[in-house]
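Can't paste images in this forum, so I'm doing it all in text. The chain is below; anyone willing to post the predicted C-alpha cells underneath?
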Amino acid sequence: MNRSAIRELTFRLIYSQEIQKSEDIDEQIELYLEANEITDESAIEYIKDVVKGIKNNQEEIEKKIQKNLKADWKIERISKVDLSLLKLAIYEIKYKEIPYKIIINEVVELSKQYGEEQSKNFVNGILASIVKEG
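Text version of the structure:
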C-alpha cells in the first residue's frame, strides 16, 4: 500500500472521529482497521501514529488553524472534511517533517475528491499561510 492510499485511509478515520467525537481513540482505530481490512503493518503504524498524534496535539493544531482563518471566521464554521484534512496536513508538516509540498499537494487532491467546490482553495490557502509562518 503506498503512502497516498494510507494517507487517504487516515483522513477517512480522522473525518469519522470529527463526526463521532468518541473518547476511546484506541477502540476507534481498531474498529476502523478491522472494518477496512487493513493488515499492512506500515499502514497500521502510520495510521495509529497520525491519529494519536493529532489527538495529543489537538489544541496546538487547532490554534494554528484558527490563527490563519479570516478575522470573522471561527474553527466551528469549517466543514468537517476540510478540518480533518487540515489537521492531517498540519500534523504531518509540523510533527513528522515530511516535505510540505508533498503533503499540501496530496491534501488538496483529497479536498477535490471529498470536499466542496471551494475546499481545495480554502485548504491550500490555510496550509500555505501555516508554512509561511514556519
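The first helix runs from residue 3 to 20. The two ends are 31 Å apart (CA to CA).
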